[in-house]
Amino acid sequence: MSLPMQAIAPDICAAPQLTPEAMAEAAAMGFKAVINNRPDFEHGPDQPTSAAIQAAAEAVGLEYRHLPVAGGYQSPEEIAAFADLLAELPRPLLVFCRSGARSTRLFMQAQQLG
Questions:
Q1: What are phi and psi of 64, to 5 degrees?
Q2: Alpha carbon of 32 to those of 74, 109, 112: distances in Å?
Q3: For the whole model, what pTM was predicted?
Q4: Which region holds residue 94: left if phi is over 0, alpha if psi is between -120 and 50, else beta?
Q5: 10-residue averages of pLDDT along the chain (114 residues)
């Protein structure tokens, strides 16, 4: 299994929804941290919870942060919080949401703050 992701910076990749099981693969690929931008239960009970993904991430040595944002709109505060996470977390960094687009938009908007 290979994670479906795209590089959005030299040391940052964005991915669609990841499972707890994907955390071991992310760690094996060399990622140091993960940011989940998807609210829990956004599309129903089949979506893995942040807590489940966090437990799996930390079990394989990844730093994990949950910054849930809506798909259609990211507030200036959310963008600033994402920028803070970019500054704080070790790289390479894996960010994800439902499709990867929201995390990519957050990244692009956070870059404009600097």
A1: -135, 135
A2: 25, 22, 24
A3: 0.96
A4: beta
A5: 88 97 97 98 93 98 98 95 98 97 97 86
Instruction: Name the residue type at position 35.
Output: I
- Residues contacting residue 92 through CB under 8 Å, at least 6 positions apart: 11, 12, 13, 30, 31, 32
Residue count of the chain, please give it. Answer: 114
